[in-house]
Amino acid sequence: MLSVNQTAAPVSYATVEVLGSGSRDDRLFRFAAIWGRAIYPGTAAAMTRAEFERHLVPLARVLRDALHARPFDSKPAVEVGAALVRANCTDPEVLPLILSVIDAYLVLYCPPGTPMPVEESRARCSRLQHAVAAGFARALRERTLAEQEAVTRVARAAQAETEQALRDSEARFRAVFEGAAVGVGVADVQGRITDVNDALVRMLGQSVTGRNVGELVHPDDPPECWSLYRELVRGDRDHYRLEKPYYRSDGSVLWTDLSVSLLRDASGAPRYQLAVMQDITERRLLRERLRYEVTHDSLTGLPNRTLFFERLDRALQTATSGEGVRQGGPDAAGARFGLCYLDIDGFKAVNDSLGHAVGDQLLVAVAERLRSCVRAPHELVARLGGDEFVALSTGPAASGDATALARRMLAALAEPIHVGGRDLSVRASIGIVDGVAGEPGAAEVLRSADITMYRAKAAGGNRYEHADADCDARAIARHSLTTCLPAALDHGEFFIEYQPLVRLADGTVRGAEALVRWLHPVHGVLGPDQFIPLAESTGLIVPLGRWVLEESARQARSWRAAEGGEPAPLRVNVNLSPSQLRHPGLVADTVAILGNAGLDPSALCLEVTENALIGADEDELRHLRQLADLGVDIALDDFGTGYSNLSYLRRLPVSTLKLDRSFTRGMQRAPADPVDVKIVEGIVSLAHTLDLSVTVEGVETGAQADHLRLLGCDTAQGWYYARPGPPERLHTLSLADAS
Fold first, then answer.
1. Cα–Cα distances in angstroms (integers) from residue 437 to residues 198, 335, 338, 376, in the given order
2. Does residue 659 contact residue 695 with C-beta atoms inside 8 Å?
3. Strand, coil or helix: what is 555?
4. CA distance 254 to 277
5. Comparing C-alpha atoms, which of 492, 513, 497 is closest to residue 633?
6. Which of 50, 362, 429, 637 could form a cystine bridge with 607, CB 3.0-4.6 A?
């Protein structure tokens, strides 16, 4: 069967063309024929194979129509599973065959009439398989309940007739006893078996007459089995029913639906016990097979998300259920847990470059190595999906066990894995959470482990990290801010402050940098470093950046109107993120905003960080060149934090360098750091040679401003002049040392 990680069966284009020939019904009949040939041997249908294949045609049509439906709905496939049960497809091995044919041939023989991505068609096919399995299991359960009810009616009828026979006529009882199709046995209240019918002898492969009921024990007997038996022979109850296993004469196991009733004499005293049992071995095997498929990953064979959460819930409920106390107090075995959340570093690159088939082989190999790391019954490794695995450890030493397990998993993956004809190095990041059972919930534990795993990945990967409550809180706060961002823009929660840009030669204000702020209703005013990375990662930076540009352009127009036509009008600087730089509508949006504000392009300067332009090709620089050709100034922000190589500036459409503050801190006091002086002097000289102006950020003292002026820097900004503030305070300069 195809895994979640796979997208399509490996079929060539030529094969698709051949299978695609003929009418849709022809292809449907072919699919039904293949389906029938695969599952007919495991059915108990009173039909020939040809009749059975024709019976499957309408069911195949339901699957085909559901596969192509828009919008997609897997519910019709539930009825397909139920219909197969009604057609007596109930053998334990039939369901895997049913699902494997759908997985391998449904998309192949019933391709969509309109174009559909291969990934979508395979995902739909997978969901249809789940729906068929669900319908199959539900119908089988309903059928089982009906059969059990029928057995109950037979048992009650047998009990009534047997009691009457014991009182009135042994011959009449014997007729019912011997003629019953189910196994029937009679024992006295001391447990000695006095009689059994032929059906029971055939079921067990031997007669058990004369033996004691207490001898027929089995290790898998339900816990309540023998307590119910003792209550019945004491006369405290008249009936009980359960599923009980027995050993056959050949050593195999017989599973029965056992119903035991107490027969009383005329005075009401317990006299006999009557057992009626039906062979449910095949049904039990099918149920166990269905249970296994529901709780195990089809690709790797590891426990899946369902079984993992069952075990995790059980571990977390140990303390609250009192199990830990019963085992010796709150520190007893089972009262603690440790969880490792593992994600393969760079797995997407394997799928994208080598294909999903190789990716699946890699996952199988990784799963096998992780399985080998489990060394005790209280440890479990499972696959949650994709390239995500989890390991659970319980017991008083769970914290240390989880750390040791994480080390073993990393060590197990250290050796390259040979798949697809090549050796692949596998790295993984692991987040570890441990604690006392009963305190956290499963969702909280997994969330903390997931956050911790990403912290390990951010630290370079191929390592493990332990959960930290403060780190979790920060991650949750970042997520909260991320979810609030779209509504914040709609609700007008953002505002802009402006920091003056001062000409060093004469100390006049020649412009301002626009700095966006977020007035959060709970957290107050947030700076751009707290939300711009979130906006960048979610794509909201494009509409937010457009809003900042619109507001800044309107403000620049307002300043220019107030200036009354001075020869050197004020200019506004607006930061441009890497996502905005790549956005196809950047130039058109900028031109439209300038036009709507009635602002000349020369009044706008767009600041782009040096790191965003390092290694950029001509296509990536195209938008900046177009804006520069229109007259918009381009400033290279945070210069010196990247390669600090002036030679590549010759090909960039920039007109201004904004020197990073790290180069000028040594000038805040006299005498200035001679190394910083030489570095800045060299940068300014070379920049002016390239006809670039130089702006310095982070000016905090008068001494620093004097040094920069003597070195030939053109403009500066920083707290020495003014902190960011409202637009009406643009010309209010403090000229006071800030450090």
1. 53, 5, 10, 19
2. yes
3. helix
4. 11
5. 513
6. 637
Rounded Cα gap, residues 702 and 709, in angstroms: 11
**Residue 562 DSSP SS3:** helix
Q: What is the pLDDT of residues 588-627, one digit of tens each?
A: 999 999 999 999 999 999 999 887 777 677 777 899 999 9
Token pair in block for residue 2: 């195809």
With a cut of 60, say whether residue 260 has pLDDT above it. Answer: yes
- CA-nearest of 600, 603, 624 to 612 is 624
pLDDT higher for 369 or 26?
Answer: 369
Angle between helix axes 442-458 and 469-490 (nearest 10 degrees) is 90
What does the alpha-carbon distance between residue 607 and residue 613 come to, in Å, rounded to a whole number? Answer: 11
Residues linked to residue 576 through DSSP beta bridges, in sequence order: 608
**d(C-alpha 577, C-alpha 609), whole Å:** 8
Q: Using CB atoms within 10 Å of the CB of residue 47, give its burial: 0 to 12 exposed, 13 to 18 middle, 19+ buried.
A: middle
Q: Could you give the residue ranges of the DSSP H alpha helices within 169-244?
A: 170-179, 198-204, 225-234
Neighbours of 573 (CB within 10 A): 25
Q: Which residue has the higher pLDDT, 197 or 319?
A: 197
DSSP designation for 189: T
Q: Considering only CA atoms, which of 720, 658, 721, 650 is closest in space to residue 684? A: 658
DSSP class of 375: -
Strands laid side by side in the 183-188 sheet: 193-196, 183-188, 270-279, 253-264, 239-247
669 in Cβ contact with 701 (< 8 Å)? yes
Scored b (16 or more CB within 10 A) or e, 423-459 reads: ebebbbbbbbbbbbbbebebeebbbbbbbbbbbbbee
Rounded to the nearest 5 degrees, what angle is found at the Cα of 260, between the Cα atoms of 259 and 265? 145
pLDDT at 127 exceeding the cut of 70: yes
Q: Which residue has the tokens 């529901």?
A: 294
Residue type present at position 407: R
pLDDT band at 332 (very low <50, low <70, confident <90, very high): very low
Bin 490: left if φ > 0, else alpha if -120 < ψ < 50, else beta.
Answer: alpha
d(CA 125, CA 115): 16
Q: Work out the average pLDDT over 721-725.
A: 93
Tokens of 334: 């089972």
Give the three-state DSSP class for 174.
helix
Look-up: residue for tokens 């049960």?
A: 85
Residue 47 sits at the vertex; the CA angle it makes with 46 and 49, to the nearest 5 degrees, is 140
- Cβ proximity of 304 and 382 under 8 Å: yes
Residues 6+ apart with CB under 8 A from 114: 68
* Mean pLDDT value across residues 699-720: 93
> At residue 85, what are phi and psi to the nearest 5 degrees?
-65, -40
Other Cβ atoms within 10 Å of 154 Cβ, number? 17
Closest C-alpha among 137, 131, 145, 147 to residue 291: 137
Q: Which of 27, 25, 26 is nearest to 107 (CA)?
A: 27
The Cα-based distances of 286 to 278, 549, 616 in angstroms read 16, 66, 61
- CA 497/CA 726 separation, integer angstroms: 5
Cα separation, 556 vs 548, in Å, equals: 12
Give the Cα separation of 229 and 241 in Å (integer).
10
Label each residue of 11-37 as H, E or C. Answer: CCHHHHHHHCCCCHHHHHHHHHHHHHH
Radius of gyration for the alpha carbons in the chain, expressed in angstroms and rounded: 38
Residues 409, 415, 418, 422, CA torsion sign? positive
pLDDT at 163: 66
3-state secondary structure of 391: strand
The answer to whether 277 and 258 have CB atoms below 8 angstroms apart is yes
Instruction: Please say if the pLDDT value at position 268 is more than 50.
Output: yes
